[in-house]
Amino acid sequence: MIITLSNNKISASINTIGAELIRLEKDNQNYIWTVDETYWNKTSPILFPIVGRLKNDAYTIADKKYELPRHGFARNFEFQILNQTENSVVFVLESNSETLKNYPFEFKLQLEYELDGNELKMKYSVENRSEVTMPFSIGAHPAFAIEDSFSNYSLQFNEAEEFVSYELENEQFSNSFRKINSENGQINLNYSLFEKDALVFKHLKSNELILLNKNKPVLSVQFEGFPYLGIWTKPNAPFLCIEPWCGLADNVNHNGNIFEKEGIQLLGNEFNFQRKIVINLL
């Protein structure tokens, strides 16, 4: 089912499967890319309870092995609607017999979308309903439409800093990294940047960036409290994914113990984890 929100500035459409944002419009322009399966079959999946790929698609807890696909399972489940107004909606996914097979923790995952002027606020909440500490990761994966030549676009970060991207090898970190050329916090985009998969920044000072087309602002993404950021596209694809993460893919040398995984979040019993991403259409 598709849920559509609107105010007097913008509108958003979200699929109850995965609570996935599929459209974000202002002045009849859709800022989220339209799916073309030649490139990719998603628009803005939620990444939970892992971000990225596990080594051998598996992890261990107390020497017991569990399997999880890349980016976890939340994006494939039907979310329930907890609350809905004209300009907001709250989706919820709770642990069930299917999730417990591959992730032995009781949880409540909540994703709220709220329109506020030209902004879409995406609020994430994870509640641990287990008796024990729950390891998890969570991340966003919105794909923004590229309407022009890709090389006309750039990213302006709110801090001038050195951009070091940690490289992936078969979707796992390989212990190599490279410096990305920038000037005053601005990275000019071209497809060659993504020949070895996503750009992954682990040590950003910035918590906001602006997507520019010919130096004209298109939209901004605020990601306070997300320690990692992925930027991704595919060769010649008409989209750019801007992905704030609380979690990372495995390292090629990881021992499989999820509690010792780089970037893992550890949530105590009955505790609640909250983060917010704001997309502002400029």
From TrEMBL:
Domain of life from the UniProt record: Bacteria
Cofactors (names): Ca(2+)
CDD domains: Aldose_epim_lacX (cd09024)
Protein name (database record): Aldose 1-epimerase family protein
Quaternary state and interactors: Monomer.
Keyword Transmembrane helix belongs to the record: no
Classification of source organism: Bacteria, Pseudomonadati, Bacteroidota, Flavobacteriia, Flavobacteriales
PANTHER family xref list: APOSPORY-ASSOCIATED PROTEIN C-RELATED, GLUCOSE-6-PHOSPHATE 1-EPIMERASE
Entry keywords, A to Z: Calcium
Pfam families (UniProt xref): Aldose_epim (PF01263)
InterPro entries from the UniProt entry: Aldose_1/G6P_1-epimerase (IPR008183), Gal_mutarotase_sf_dom (IPR011013), GH-type_carb-bd (IPR014718), LacX (IPR037481)
